[in-house]
Amino acid sequence: MGASRGPRLSGLQKQVLSLYRGFLRAARCKSAEDRRQIESIVSAEFRQNSNQVDRKNFVYIEYLLRRGKKQLEQLQSPNTESLSQTKQS
Amino acid sequence: MALRRAVLDHVRVPVQTLALTGSKQRWSVLGSLRFMSSHDDHLTKEEVIDRVLSVVKCFPKVDPSQVTPDVHFQKDLGLDSLDNVEIVMALEEEFKLEIPDKEAVRIDACNLAIEYIYNHPMAS
């Protein structure tokens, strides 16, 4: 194993990536069509926040993490079929 | 209350539970071809390298001609950390593994992925 050349991740970044991984794992348990839809929504949301949220805005990022964890719990329920996108006002 | 609203806005629970259609079984005839082989069914290094590289090359944002066994996902291929997660997840599926978070964050280059998978007893 060579030494990693990548940038060191902060604890908060690790949590975000872990949450992203969790969503992609949860999506695998859904039907093929729902899975594609979930993946595209989740990926768009994470990417949008990664571009728009100030990386020093810890309070807001922690809020997003908490919200994301709740959403993931809902998604992991077998009764949840898919996500839908709504704009937050 | 605002949080609850935000969560409810994002989650839809179906009224009826529909039959799952997409859960196709992966078991193929390969299993029967492996009759009486208990030792030699571990992947060869070459096979691991080939399959890792082909997964990375198939990633939409990657230029396949740039992919080599030494390539670093973020530094050499211009991917970000979210792409990195997606690639590791794709490798999990290809090799039918579950890579724990702690290991997954360390896999940020082809050679690390190849090492990890080659040394994993469950890779197939």
TrEMBL record, chain A:
Protein name, UniProt field: Complex 1 LYR protein domain-containing protein
Alphabetized UniProt keyword annotations: Chaperone, Mitochondrion
Tagged with keyword rRNA-binding: no
GO biological process: mitochondrial respiratory chain complex II assembly
Domain Complex 1 LYR protein: 14-74
Family, similarity comment: Belongs to the complex I LYR family. SDHAF1 subfamily.
Organism the protein comes from: Citrus unshiu (Satsuma mandarin)
Localization terms from the record: Mitochondrion matrix
InterPro entries reported in the protein's UniProt record: Complex1_LYR_dom (IPR008011), Complex1_LYR_SDHAF1_LYRM8 (IPR045295)
Keyword Mitochondrion set for record: yes
GO CC terms in record: mitochondrial matrix
Recorded superkingdom: Eukaryota
From TrEMBL, chain B:
The protein's annotated pathway: Lipid metabolism; fatty acid biosynthesis
InterPro entries registered for this protein in UniProt: ACP, ACP-like_sf, PP-bd_ACP
Keywords, alphabetical: Electron transport, Fatty acid biosynthesis, Fatty acid metabolism, Lipid biosynthesis, Lipid metabolism, Mitochondrion, Phosphopantetheine, Phosphoprotein, Respiratory chain, Transit peptide, Transport
Protein name: Acyl carrier protein
Pfam families per record: PP-binding (PF00550)
Molecular function via GO: acyl binding; acyl carrier activity
Function description: Carrier of the growing fatty acid chain in fatty acid biosynthesis. May be involved in the synthesis of short and medium chain fatty acids. Accessory and non-catalytic subunit of the mitochondrial membrane respiratory chain NADH dehydrogenase (Complex I), which functions in the transfer of electrons from NADH to the respiratory chain.
Carrier domain ranges (all copies): 46-121
Species of provenance: Citrus unshiu (Satsuma mandarin)
Subunit relationships: Complex I is composed of at least 49 different subunits.
SUPFAM superfamilies, per the entry: ACP-like (SSF47336)
A single cellular component GO annotation: mitochondrion
Main subcellular location: mitochondrion
Subcellular location field: Mitochondrion
Protein family per UniProt: Belongs to the acyl carrier protein (ACP) family.
The keyword Phosphoprotein is assigned to this record: yes
